Amino acid sequence: MQLEWSKISNQIIDISIALASIDLPPYVLLEIIDWLPLFEYVDHKKKIDLIVNLRKSIAKIFELRKIK
Fold it and tell me: Which of 4, 17, 8 is nearest to 36 (CA)?
């Protein structure tokens, strides 16, 4: 079965944003995501890179809000 990265990545982003308020470490979030159906078949490197980059973006947004 071929998985479309664009659909999977959007779901990972949604999950990461939904759980951002409890501030889980990236690898804990990856472990949670891997428990979901079909996510285990996606490359771990792609998933962790997406999660880490999204966390950086969220942190940057909060940082900019503090400055204003």
Answer: 8
Q: How do residues 30-62 score in pLDDT, each as one tens digit?
A: 999 999 888 888 889 999 999 999 999 988 988
Q: Is the dihedral of CA 54, 57, 63, 64 positive or negative?
A: negative
Within 8 A by CB and 6+ apart from 68, the residues are none
In whole angstroms, give the CA distance from residue 50 to residue 68: 27
Taking the C-alpha atoms of residue 11 and residue 37, their distance in angstroms, rounded to an integer, is: 12
State the pTM of this model. Answer: 0.84
Structure tokens at 55: 């966390």
Whether the CB-CB separation of 40 and 12 falls below 8 Å is answered with no
Chain-centroid distance of CA 44 in Å reads 11
